[in-house]
Design a protein that fits this description.
CATH class of one domain: Alpha Beta
Strand order of the largest sheet: 5-6-8-7
Order of helices and strands: EEHEEHEHHEHEHEHH
Helix content: 40-55%
Bound molecules: zinc ion
Structural class: alpha+beta
Strand content: 5-15%
Number of helices: 8
């Protein structure tokens, strides 16, 4: 029998039994911490590897999905930071006279707006409506090819193209709710400007908003595009127009 104050030899000279017990517990805790950290590092490393190689898990590269619900389909925010969700339903499309297509839900208001524009002496057309992701990918690679032909490195060409063309999966044209609107022919800058001016003043009344306003690039991620209009519905369009905000700010 030894009491609490008995001395024992631990190989490092004589220490009290209480101190020996304390040191042993401290070593056990330290070992546990090292083992936990090592396990966490191994798991993180494995997930990271899976993400980069198999594009699976929390470290998979890419852009997070936009929030989407069927009830609020008209306010989905797709931009360079939020891609179209994988489960986004393929839109039902309506084909226009010039061959362009739009989501059928925006067609009646688009038609009504065009009727008014024509009555006001304008001659507008949809120069770009719905696009598949493959078509968007083609536009991107055409642009990169163009820049490379102008002498840019592959990396620079990709970066420059990314400033003007939406990355496939992040273009509003791929959901069919956006239209590029110009004057028929589209080569006449004056005629286009008349269309843009009319739209800036009136499109909201038909549920369409100027999606990329001047001076809002840091919010929308896009340069000013006076031709690109997005359907959000009459109530939301009025709200956005009245407050001079963007869809990103409205949806926040
Ligand atoms: Zn556009």
């Amino acid at each position: 029998m030894r009491d609490r104050n008995s001395r024992l030899d631990t190989g490092r000279g004589t220490v009290s039994f209480a101190q020996y017990r304390y040191e042993r517990a401290a070593k056990a805790v330290a070992k546990l911490i090292i083992a936990t950290v090592a396990a966490a590092a191994i798991i993180t490393g494995a997930l990271f590897g899976l993400g980069r190689i198999a594009h699976w898990g929390p470290f998979a590269p890419g852009i997070p999905e936009a929030r989407y619900s069927a009830q609020s389909w008209n306010t989905i925010v797709v931009n360079r930071w939020h891609r179209i969700p994988d489960d986004y339903p393929a839109p039902e499309l309506t084909q226009l006279a010039n061959g362009q297509q739009v989501d059928s839900r925006i067609y009646p208001e688009l038609q009504r707006m065009f009727d008014t524009m024509r009555a006001d002496g304008l001659d507008p057309e949809v120069t770009a409506g719905y696009r598949t992701q493959d078509e968007q990918r083609q536009i991107m690679s055409d642009r990169i090819f163009l820049y490379e032909n102008q002498g840019m490195s592959a990396k620079d060409a990709e970066r420059e193209a990314g400033r003007l063309v939406a990355i496939p999966g992040t273009s509003e044209h791929e959901i069919g709710l956006a239209v590029d609107l110009n004057a028929v022919g589209a080569a006449d800058a004056e005629a286009n400007q008349q269309v843009y001016d009319w739209l800036a003043a009136n499109a909201w009344q038909y549920g369409f908003i100027l999606r990329y306003p001047d001076g809002k690039t840091d919010v929308t991620g896009n340069q000013y595009e006076p031709w690109h209009y997005r359907y959000v519905g009459a109530d939301v369009a009025k709200d956005i127009h009245d407050h001079g905000i963007t869809l990103e700010e409205y949806a926040r």
